Amino acid sequence: MSATVVAGDTTIGGEVEWAACDCCGLREECTPAYIAGVKARHGGRWVCGLCSEAVEDEIHRAGRLISPEEALTRHASFREAFRSAGPPPDPAAHLIAAVRHLVRRGFETPRAPRSTPTSPRRRLSQDGGTASLSRSGSCFSALAR
């Protein structure tokens, strides 16, 4: 895979070219200097910002020291495997399971105790006052108009 420069335009800020990402194929409008800098960082390949962040993440997640070229290869293979997998057989059930997993994970996360209570009910009951909450106006009446 190699970066493809599609077209060149002249603008007030200078020459602008379209470059296609070697990993995902995303096309971006960039200056030649920016394209050269990205290619220098990624071993001659032009990589978009999203894939560049994914490559950095691959480097940090690896248990050992890996080269940027190896991280780019890992990201490209992960991306290809993801694209070839296709959509799930039942997207609605898949979405529901993912949301259920997120909610359960949120409830299982231990919460740090707060130094000061934020609830007015707790503050009043600690001070010995009455524990009542006042009701503010509803926004639904404004929405119905």
TrEMBL record:
Residues 107-145 are annotated as: Disordered. It comes from the Eukaryota. Residues 127-139 have a biased composition (Polar residues). Residues 109-119 have a biased composition (Low complexity). PANTHER family: DUF1677 FAMILY PROTEIN (DUF1677) (PTHR33108:SF32), OS01G0745000 PROTEIN (PTHR33108). This is DUF1677 family protein.
